[in-house]
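Q: What would this chain look like folded?
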Amino acid sequence: MKALLSIKPEFVYEIMSGKKKYEYRKKIFKQDVESVVIYASMPVGRIVGEFTIGEIISSSPKEIWKETKEYSGISYKDYCKYFKGRKDAYAIQIKELKRYERPIDPYETFDHFVPPQSYKYIYDENPEKSEMIKICMA
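A: My prediction, written as structure tokens:
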């Protein structure tokens, strides 16, 4: 299964450049997800690529930073701000990055597109029923 993640444009740039090899989250998937489709949030507002998931690290924010800071693609100050008051943190390892040649404008492509606050599952058990999965697999 795939999941669609909203990621701020500055962090999408860091992912695409190869500097950011971990995507940090306050919540993690409840179902098995093998790959992530990247939605660059506004002002970009496009689906720009995808990556397969390596490992998902679950620990305290302090421990996750220790383990991933070399490839965080984010300042320690911003990292602390994001996880302020949290006991649990997650780091999704980015593997096999694929940049789309033509980013997808989901507002023109899908009826009633609403970007996910955290993540949205893209079901692929029956791709002909899911326009999102068809486009992302093309």
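The chain has one domain: 2-137.
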